[in-house]
Design a protein that fits this description.
Largest sheet: 8 strands, antiparallel, barrel
Distance between the termini: 58 Å
Shape: globular
Strand content: over 45%
Amino acid sequence: MKKINLAAILVVLSAFTGIVSAEMAFQSNQDVQGAWKLEYTKKTVSSTEKIAREDSWAFSGDKVTITHIPREGIYYDQTPVSYLIEDGKLKISLLGRSDKYDTFSLVERDDKSMTLKGKYGDIYHFIKK
């Protein structure tokens, strides 16, 4: 009887975990086209500490340009790099390494905002410019 109860509990927990970690999928490049302001980042979904950001990400065609990136009290702009949507995820090539990518999952998106999750769990919240 204890084994049946334990099995039932594990089934319920695994079903709940699947719901909590469910993410949306990108369908095409059109899902990210346009200019987005990175409003804040967080270390995890459940983290309450938001780190204010000022970067702008502009997606045009198959290139993304990230501008106004803060570093040591100044700002810089990154040269455009390619990106693609593959297996429902956003992949942005690393600067100088077109064969390596930063990968982002779509957490939520509407007409005015978008939230992405990096491969290490960091959260990126954007608003449409």
